[in-house]
Design a protein that fits this description.
The protein is an alpha+beta fold. It has three domains: about 80 residues, no CATH class; about 100 residues, PAS domain (Beta-Lactamase), CATH 3.30.450; about 160 residues, Reverse transcriptase/Diguanylate cyclase domain (Alpha-Beta Plaits). It has eleven helices and twelve strands. Strand 3 and strand 4 form a beta hairpin. Helix 1 runs antiparallel to helix 2 and helix 8 packs antiparallel against helix 9.
């Protein structure tokens, strides 16, 4: 805010300077005239009168233009502050809010009148709210800061109590013995949602929202690495839907998509949260069972999958019946790598189809040989 005392202070300093100069000149003139005694009372009165005569000159030609210039700069700064796209807030050493621009009001949902004079912690969610004053005290004691001069991402809290991510940059201004902290902040909620959407499109199937082929390969590699370190075993179930093509061709692609969505929902109920269910594409799904030591437990999951898929599907006003052929491969018993594990499971799935479909088959180490193309990253 504009400080009117600034030009007045300069004005008074100038008048004091003039008074001292005039008094000094009178003294020098007295010395030149070789007066044995200087009448200081008279000199002080004369200097004061001359200084008073200079008041209009200094006011209209020095102080007033300076005051106008400062007022103009203050107005310009205030307009820039209010029209800034980023939120700008300032606090004192005790955390009291001194300024809160329009963008900050839009971000947090508070008006300036509601927050000015209050502690800045009102804009923070717990537990940051409780530790802010302690942080300021520690900064003044040690001079160490993790925020000042850096851009960081923190959590803010709106007036309605909703937390949100914000990007924060803090600058410290020192004048005299006082400190002022000014923060420029941006609400990055939309950017976070956009990044999440991009990640969703890159790693998840758009129809079923299951991990896609790319994420499945990544999870498979992680599971193999973890199993090696911990000497655990994992199981890979390769699932192909029996009869899906006929439903898709006769009832239409829209019904086929609904069928895939419902299939994914049923398969989710067959696995644990620690396992990975993925859609590789078309009507092919995979289940990655971590820490799968017992063959009987893997068989139980395969039977659960087959039984679940065998139940009729209600698709709008139509009913569809399909089945599932499941091929199973276990690490390290059937294959030593993720790529060969996938080969074994795929061949076992085709063996299940050849056996009459709607059943499961375990692969064998010998199935890992032969021509089969798998992604290089596995």
């Amino acid at each position: 805010m504009y400080d009117i005392q600034h030009p007045l202070r300069i004005f008074l300093i100038l008048l004091t300077f003039v008074f001292v100069v005039e008094l000094s000149i009178m003294y020098l003139l007295a010395v030149v005239e070789v007066k044995p005694v200087v009448d200081w009372a008279e000199a002080l009165v004369d200097a004061a009168l001359l200084t008073v005569l200079c008041v209009p000159f200094f006011w209209y030609f020095v102080a007033k233009p300076l005051q106008n210039a400062l007022e103009l700069e203050s107005i310009k700064s205030h307009k820039i502050l209010e029209l800034a796209a980023e939120g700008i807030v300032s606090i004192d050493t005790k955390g009291k809010l001194l300024s809160f621009n329009r963008a900050a009001q839009n971000i947090f949902g508070y008006s300036a009148d509601e927050v000015l004079g209050k502690n800045v912690s009102i804009l923070m969610p717990a537990p940051h709210r409780d530790s802010h004053n302690e942080y300021l005290s520690r900064y003044f004691q040690t001079g160490q800061s993790h925020v000042i001069g850096k851009t960081r991402e923190l959590q803010g809290e709106r007036k309605d109590g909703m937390p949100f991510p914000l990007e924060l940059s803090v600058t410290e201004i020192k004048y005299g013995g006082a400190h002022l902290f000014t923060a420029v902040l941006r609400d990055v909620s939309e950017q976070k949602l956009a990044l999440k959407r991009i990640e969703q499109l890159a790693h998840y199937d758009e129809l079923t929202h299951l991990p896609n082929r790319s994420l499945f390969y990544d999870r498979l590699g992680q599971s193999i690495s973890m199993a090696k370190r911990s000497r655990l075993s994992i199981a890979l179930l390769y699932i192909d839907l029996d009869g899906f093509k006929q439903v898709n061709d006769t009832m239409g692609h829209h019904i086929g998509d609904l069928l895939l969505v419902q299939t994914a929902e049923r398969l989710r109920l067959c696995v644990r949260e620690s396992d990975t269910l993925a859609r590789l594409g078309g009507d092919e799904f995979t289940i990655l069972l971590n820490d799968a030591h017992e063959r009987e437990n893997v068989e139980m999951v395969a039977k659960k999958v087959i039984s679940s898929i065998a139940q009729p599907f209600g698709l709008e006003d139509q009913t569809a019946h399909i089945g599932a052929s499941v091929g199973i491969a276990r690490y390290p018993y059937d294959a030593p790598t993720g790529g060969t594990l996938l080969i074994v499971a795929d061949k076992a799935m085709y063996a299940a189809k050849a056996a009459g479909k709607n059943t499961y088959r375990f692969g064998t180490p010998g199935d890992a040989t032969g021509a089969y193309s798998v992604p290089k990253r596995v």
